[in-house]
Amino acid sequence: MKLKKEQIENIQIDYGIVILNYGEAGAERLGPTKGGAEFNATKNIRDIEFDGSMGKSKGMQVIDEINASLKFSILDTQLATIAKTMPQADYDETSKIIKNSKGGLIPASKYFKNITMFAKVAKGGYKKITLFNAMNESDFVLSSAPKAEGEIALEVFAHWDPEEVTIDLFHIEDVTTITEPA
After folding, report:
1. Is residue 33 packed enough to be buried (19+ CB in 10 Å), middle (13-18) or exposed (0-12)?
2. Each residue of 46-57: pLDDT tens digit?
C-alpha cells in the first residue's frame, strides 16, 4: 500500500523549539535546547466491573485522569533561567543568589501560563504543542563533563486549574510560522 501525500508531508523532521509563555507579554525562548523534546499525553482508564463481565467491555470504561508533559534539556545556565526550572527555590535578583524555599504548598507564581514546543514537519510549518499551567517537576541536576556541555534535563507537566475547570490541559495544532519572542 502506498503512502498518502498528507502522511509524508506531516512527518516531523527536525528539532523542537521551546517557548515559555508563548503569545503572552514576556514570552521567551527557553534554551538553547539539546537533544530535541518529547511530548507525552497519558491517561488512566478504569474498567467498570459488573457481574457477568467477561473482561474489558466496550462502553464500560472511564477516563479517570489525564496528564501531559514535555521532556527536554536546556544548556542555558543563567541563574534567572535556572530559577525558572526550580519550584523548590527562590531567586534574589539583587544578590544574584538562588536558595531553597521553605517547602509547603507550591505558590501559583511557580506555574507558567504555558510552555509551547514547535516541531518542524516535512511540508514546512510546525506542530505546535502547548501545555497550560506548566511547571517543571524533575529534580535539578547540572553536571559537568570533559568536552561536553552541561545540560539541565526538564520534565514540565501541565496542570489543571481548580478555579477554571473548563480550561484545557494541552493543545496540539498545525501552524505555518513561529512568532519568536523579542
Report:
1. buried
2. 999 999 999 999
